[in-house]
Amino acid sequence: MSFVESYVQGAPCWIDLVTTDVDSARTFYSGLFGWSYDDYPMPSSAGEMTYSMGTIDGRNVAGLMQQAPEMVGDAPSWQTYIAVDDAEAAAERVTEEGGTVLFPVDEIPGSGRMTIAFDTVGAKFGLWQTTGHIGSAVVNQHGAPIWHELQAPDPAAAAAFYSAVLGVEPKTADVGGIPYTELFASGKSSAGIMPKQDADQPSTWLVYFGADNPDETATKAAELGGTVLEPAFDIPGIGRMAVLADPQGVVFAVMRGES
């Protein structure tokens, strides 16, 4: 188990699920990963809503929330948040580099400062400046985030954007015949970018969760009402993984890395 006490700028630090049926999602991910939940009230345009923190052994892993009425029509999805030292300054750089900031930086008292943006290839992501809540406090184990990967129509353009906004260093290598770009934050590999394999596929950040046995996890996901989009397969030198969708159709991956 890997505990995290802080994140450097440019490293993905948090994920949350915005979904059309949060009660169903809570049941699904609890059954799949063994999560417990801590619930917090959250104001919204429709009145008070609940933000659920999925936890492992009492440590925060991910957030879940019901899609707000004004978001009806948006596809439910997992959102990746990237750590920044100054949310306002990072948001300004997003705009300067051709991205779109969806709303001014918001203060969540005692937790952090955040906003949501689109990058230049159309993928949505969050910026998170901690003022108390660092993000995922446990990673790299079963049921916890293990990797974040951007599926992009133009990986080079995406890498240039995140490098300019966050100061990360992109490095590209051939992985299984596909050019794969890793983003290094303070010298540590923290996320990846790969070309979209289907022109109709949306540009999006894909969240990977750790799985002790990806085959068994995929089978369990199907039993819980999810869908196995890609059965477990091996990538030499990387690990074994599967691509799944929850009952609301939200795509995610599970992976056991090679030790």
From TrEMBL:
Pfam family, one: Glyoxalase
Xref: InterPro entries: Anthracycline_SecMetBiosynth, Glyas_Bleomycin-R_OHBP_Dase, Glyas_Fos-R_dOase_dom, Glyoxalase_6, VOC_core
Annotated PROSITE patterns: VOC
Domain VOC: 11-130, 144-257
Protein known as: VOC domain-containing protein
Species of origin: Subtercola boreus
